[in-house]
Hints:
- By secondary structure, this protein is an alpha/beta fold.
- The protein has two domains: 220 residues, Alpha-Beta Barrel (TIM Barrel), CATH 3.20.20.70; 114 residues, no CATH class.
- The strands form three sheets. The chain has an eight-stranded parallel beta sheet with strand order 3-2-1-8-7-6-5-4. A two-stranded antiparallel ribbon has the order 9-10. A two-stranded antiparallel ribbon has the order 11-12.
- Helix 3 runs parallel beside helix 4, helix 5 packs parallel to helix 6 and helix 6 packs parallel to helix 7.
Amino acid sequence: MDTTDVSQQSGDRDRGGLDLTHRLLVQVPADRAGELWSVGDDDDGGLVVSGAGALTAASAGARGTTRPVLVDRRRYAGKNRPPGTVRFDISWIEGQRDLNTATVLTDSGYVGKGDHAALAAILEQTTRAGDNVCAVLPLHLSWLANPGVKHLIVEVNHHEVPVALVLEYGSDPLGTQYAVTGLKHLLSQARVPVSLLCTDISGLGAMAYGAAWAAVGVTSSLRHLYPASGTGPPFRALRPRHAIVPRLMTLMNAERIAEGWALVQRHDDVDESLWRCDCAECGNRTMDRFATCTDLSLAAHNVNILGDLHQQVTSPASWDQAISDALGWYVWMQNEYHLTWEPPAFMNAWLPKSRR
């Protein structure tokens, strides 16, 4: 055996033994994993490779790395998604074990509104799948409302396996107060680790309230599950680009960021600091660059900002404070720039006006 093989096997062993607790992971599509593999490599997070080709893509990139790597088949996505009663593919389970992923994610089908049989089937199959297996639960958002969330808690506690939620909604699923309330209730009552796949900035809030780990998607389609009956993200010749504006704590379309920067240029007396970023990737450059920078640079910026927030947000109180601070900057922006842009819905869902 040559030294390369020894290094690769050592990396595989280390990766499989890593604890995922309180890690913020980056979720990337399998067909772009090679391009985005280095995103977040300097922090204490990890990577989730997603899609039908995830095992192959992860195998190509993961050899020798010591950070956690997961693979999510996303069998539950698309218009022809199977129901949760579908049997797991044993080769998918064993392929993850061969790769020594940090945990094994089930290739679950979709759990529709009130589909108790689908929920039970995923959890029962997970109990029989062996050690270190996490049940992926792709859920219609009604499962976080009553009576769905009560039944969900009972089933999760009964089967005693870790679960990772994927929430289906036409826009931000955790931009609705009932979904946030239901998620908080689940996190407080579950006797097993509960995590989130395919999420966004709200993943930090979920961990503040007790989620084991969360995976934030680098693209809109990996930040939640679009309904099969509805439409996904609007088709454009170019993929929409979203970057986090740090002070606003908002994933904002790059075109809107450019609009804000352009407004500053038209008024000499307007403070431009809102549109500069001093993260390791940006180096205090102005954020209008996101309209033309590489996808890798854009993703690196977002992950750097999320990493900084992750260090700050360690409790419900600190999550509430982060939202409150961001809302304060929205008020400042309205006063300084006379822009009446609405804050993202997740802020009011997590911190309703009655609690401010």
